[in-house]
Specification:
By secondary structure, the chain is of the alpha+beta class. The protein is globular. The two termini are 13 Å apart. Helix 4 runs antiparallel to helix 5, helix 4 packs across helix 6 and helix 5 runs parallel beside helix 10. The strands form five sheets. It has a five-stranded antiparallel beta sheet, with helices on both faces. 30% of the residues lie in helices and 20% in strands.
Length: 400
């Protein structure tokens, strides 16, 4: 039953280079339904908003590297990307930095940053107690925290560094399908507030700062017309239950194909995809790959206790992969997301002994009572087992 999942991804079976609608691959769907641990959720795939996209890198007849893809319910409806969108913010921040240091070569990933107050009650932020080297806020540390433990405050700083319109411009340059990054995470801010970002200083020396002034985005946010943009039957707002579905029409968004493209562009810049490649250096690319692969417990700066952040905390496929081979046999470059009942995995899985690899991008929605923001989602007993079983199925093919 496992063999069908990967063997479908033979050379040039299905090549997608952008936001092209994908038909369900019937054989892949049958293979997924044939895995016992996936079967229960697959019976209600539409209710769970399940989407699965697998891809391998192949050569076309002209010798160019392309993606052979197979999908199940790919972009059938909206899914909330949650923290998986942070990959885009990390790349955008490095691109923005590189543009700035064309004018001032002193600016680096390790130059201390000061974030000035923007909203009432805020103060200057210039220290990071988790940065053991010198306690400063730097782009390198914020990006590492985004990947290591999906730190929302770190993402918000990257969001502010690039700006809402800057993020939109870069996503468009990259050709990412349906990408929209228009709000901070875990902060209750209005649309107008999310348009604003604070003054940010590079602290070049004690006596010299290079300032990025406060900015306000002029981006026109267009309501998403994706299918299924209204989610659930009710939602909690403050102490009140609003008895209607929650609209995600103006929240962060990206198509599943676009989300996978964002990772492919990082992992293998030679693959032919729509849009421009990332305008980052080779050392920056390696830095991002290493940050996205590192386990929190292995990080030396910042440090995260394994008891609080076990190895599978940010790698939903790992428990299944470990049923096939030890953790040391796998390299997982990924960024997960989880919020509002949506669980998202966007991963490049490499079986080290064989060198075989596969891109795995998937999402599942779990919310039996239909109420959003009540903290009652079936992550542990539905979403986690589903994604682990998907990981095991992929792992068995890569390791065979």
């Amino acid at each position: 039953m496992h063999a069908a999942i990967l063997t479908l991804l033979g050379p040039m079976l299905s090549v997608v280079q952008g936001p092209i609608p994908m038909r369900d691959d019937a054989a892949l769907a049958d293979a997924l339904r044939g895995v016992p641990a996936l079967a229960a959720a697959m019976e209600h795939a539409a209710d769970h908003r399940i989407q699965v996209l697998l891809a391998s890198v192949e050569k076309d007849p002209r010798g160019q590297f392309v993606l052979a893809r197979r999908g199940f319910r790919v972009d059938a409806e909206y899914f909330y990307p949650a923290s998986s969108i942070k990959l885009c913010a990390a790349v955008a921040a490095l691109e923005d930095l590189d543009e700035r240091r064309v004018k001032d070569a002193r600016l680096t990933e390790d130059t201390p940053l000061e974030f000035h107050p923007l909203f009432e009650g805020e103060a200057i932020e210039s220290t990071d107690v988790g940065h053991l080297k010198d306690g400063t806020i730097t782009l390198r540390q914020e990006i590492r925290k985004v990947f290591l433990v999906s730190d929302n405050a770190a993402f918000n700083r990257l969001y502010e560094f690039v700006g809402q319109d800057g993020l939109a411009r870069r996503a468009a340059n990259w050709g990412l399908a349906g990408a929209r990054i228009v709000h901070r995470l875990s902060e209750s801010r209005s649309e107008d507030e999310n348009r604003r970002v604070p003054r940010i200083d590079f602290v070049v020396s004690e006596s010299e700062h290079v300032t990025i002034p406060e900015r306000t985005s002029k981006l026109k946010i267009v309501d998403s017309r994706a299918t299924g943009i209204r989610v659930g039957t009710a939602y909690v707002e403050g102490q009140q239950v609003i008895d209607k579905p929650m609209s995600f029409a103006r929240k962060n968004a990206i198509d599943l194909v676009g989300l996978q493209d964002a990772l492919v562009k990082l992992v293998d810049p030679d693959v032919m995809l729509r849009g421009e490649p990332y305008a980052i250096t080779k050392p920056q690319r390696e830095f991002l790959l290493n940050a996205a692969a590192e386990y929190p417990g292995d990080s030396r700066d910042p440090r995260y206790p394994r008891a609080e952040y076990p190895d599978d905390w940010g790698k939903f496929l790992l428990p299944g992969l470990e049923r096939v081979a030890p953790k040391s046999a796998w390299r997982i470059v990924n960024k997960i997301g989880r919020a509002y009942g949506f669980s998202v995995e966007n991963a490049w899985v490499v079986h080290r002994p064989s060198g075989r690899a596969l891109f795995v991008t998937a999402t599942i929605y779990t919310n039996d009572n239909g109420v959003l923001n009540d903290g009652k989602y079936e992550y542990e007993n539905v979403a986690d087992p589903f994604l682990a079983a998907l990981g095991e199925s992929v792992g068995r093919e890569l390791a065979r």
